[in-house]
């Protein structure tokens, strides 16, 4: 038999998304009849608003079923620009906006458009799972900047300079954050902005959770630090989280026109336009009533409050109170080194496996986010499931010796 075809080194250096992998395993166990409580999911447990789905259906009936312009239909690019103006007072033209196949795709596009081999990208950790591999796929080098639980995972401005080198080209920020739910403070953003201006870095601001925050008052943002930063910032956003539209695959990016144009070039030679009916659905989302995220928050807040309080009641467990998104990120490291029936629990991967096998609770190990002391649980699920899951987690932890 001939040898199997070998693969590119670029693909052998990365792993598949661990969050999607855990979710797939949990779904498979559930399909096989196991009573799995799934906390691994990274999407709202809400249906897309009816008027948005209706707009998608109407688009199909109206014949919007062909290729569109590569960077999206002009109406949707304009609607994104209008939202930025209405919600934040930022002025972007439609040409400074790209519509892409989910926020994830926009991030992929921007790394491909800007990075050269060896360029370094600062990524605060805990980080969203896809940032480092996407940087690597573009030939870049992820440089991990640690955030501390004791700082509520805010960035300590004093350490930033330690990770910057002559080769630093970019920093990726995500506030509210997946997986921690934490925000970057105005002080941290000020430090990042100052350094970016001084060194000429590009700032990627992943704002996908901007509408899902428990904060009273305004969410601090990098563009509020200094107006000049608009020339060296790319905003990443989308309708996946804010309108419960994860399966529609519509994201958007905004930034300096030459970068957006370069991203459009990448998109034109890879995916072409995002799904045409989905763009019309997103248009309805962005131009219609904006109260949907607040509806979700009404459900999320009591779940968060219960989850955090109940986790903190477990001996040895600490948990930062998330100020946004729909995740809790408790620290279980006090249990590492214990074992179950002779099998050691030596870190977050072993603990999450133990939770799945022995408690039928699906979670995501912190190692996937570059933070092994922690495990991520999504509270985009019912209060009933959270209460039942917490009971099982407590019992499972008590069985460790
Ligand atoms: C969900 C998510 C995204 C993008 O999701 P899409 O479905 O691709 O729009 C981007 N960043 C973070 C941190 C996320 O959690």
Question: What would your notes on this structure say?
Answer:
The protein has a seven-stranded mixed sheet, with helices on both faces. A three-stranded antiparallel sheet has the order 9-14-13. Strands 1-12 form a two-stranded parallel ribbon. It folds into two domains: 9-47 and 292-398, Aspartate Aminotransferase, domain 1, CATH 3.90.1150.10; 65-287, Type I PLP-dependent aspartate aminotransferase-like (Major domain) (Aspartate Aminotransferase, domain 2). Helix 5 runs parallel beside helix 6 (131-137). The chain is of the alpha/beta class and 401 residues long. It has helices at 9-12, 18-31, 50-61, 74-88, 103-114, 131-137, 157-163, 186-199, 257-268, 276-287, 292-312, 348-359, 383-398; strands at residues 37-38, 97-100, 120-125, 141-146, 168-174, 202-206, 233-238, 251-254, 327-328, 339-340, 343-344, 361-362, 364-365, 375-378. The relative contact order is 0.16. Strand 3 (120-125), helix 6 and strand 4 form a beta-alpha-beta unit. Helices cover 39% and strands 13% of the residues. The chain contains 13 helices and 14 strands. It binds pyridoxal-5'-phosphate.
Q: Which key phrases capture this entry?
A:
401 residues; Aspartate Aminotransferase, domain 1; Aspartate Aminotransferase, domain 2; 2 domains; 7-stranded mixed beta sheet; 3-stranded antiparallel beta sheet; 13 helices; 14 strands; globular; binds pyridoxal-5'-phosphate
């Amino acid at each position: 038999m001939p040898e199997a075809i070998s693969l590119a080194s670029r693909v052998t250096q990365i792993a598949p998304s661990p969050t999607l992998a855990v979710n797939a395993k949990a779904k498979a166990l559930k399909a096989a009849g196991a009573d799995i409580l799934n906390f691994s999911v990274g999407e709202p447990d809400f249906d897309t608003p009816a008027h948005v789905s209706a707009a998608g259906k109407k688009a199909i009936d109206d014949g919007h079923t062909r290729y569109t312009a590569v960077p999206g239909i002009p109406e949707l690019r304009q609607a994104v620009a209008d939202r930025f103006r209405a919600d934040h007072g930022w002025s972007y033209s439609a040409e400074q906006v790209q519509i892409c196949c989910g926020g994830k795709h926009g991030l992929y596009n921007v790394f491909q458009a800007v990075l050269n081999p060896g360029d370094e990208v600062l990524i605060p950790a805990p980080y969203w799972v896809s940032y480092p591999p996407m940087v690597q796929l573009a030939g870049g080098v992820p440089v991990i900047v640690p955030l501390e639980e004791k700082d509520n995972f805010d960035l300590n401005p004093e350490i930033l300079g330690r990770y910057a080198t002559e080769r630093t080209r970019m920093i990726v920020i995500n506030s509210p954050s997946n997986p921690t739910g934490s925000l970057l403070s105005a002080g941290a953003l000020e430090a990042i902005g100052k350094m970016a201006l001084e060194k000429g870095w590009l700032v990627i601001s992943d704002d996908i959770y901007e509408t899902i925050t428990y904060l009273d008052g305004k969410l601090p943002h990098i563009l509020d630090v200094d107006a000049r930063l608009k020339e060296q910032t790319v905003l990443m956003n989308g309708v996946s989280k804010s309108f419960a539209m994860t399966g529609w695959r519509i994201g958007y990016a905004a930034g300096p026109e030459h970068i957006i144009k370069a991203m459009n070039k990448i998109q034109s030679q890879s995916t072409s336009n995002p799904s045409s009916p989905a763009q019309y659905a997103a248009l309805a989302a962005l131009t219609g009533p904006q109260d949907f995220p607040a509806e979700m928050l009404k459900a999320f807040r009591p779940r968060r409050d219960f989850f955090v309080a109940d986790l903190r009641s477990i001996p040895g467990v600490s948990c930062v109170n998330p100020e946004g998104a729909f995740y809790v990120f408790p620290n279980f490291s006090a249990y590492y080194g214990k074992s179950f029936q002779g099998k050691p629990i030596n870190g977050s991967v072993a603990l999450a496996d133990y939770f799945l096998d022995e408690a039928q609770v699906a979670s995501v190990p912190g190692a996937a986010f570059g933070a092994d002391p922690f495990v991520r649980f999504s509270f985009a699920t019912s209060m009933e499931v959270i209460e039942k899951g917490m009971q099982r987690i407590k019992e499972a932890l008590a069985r460790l010796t």
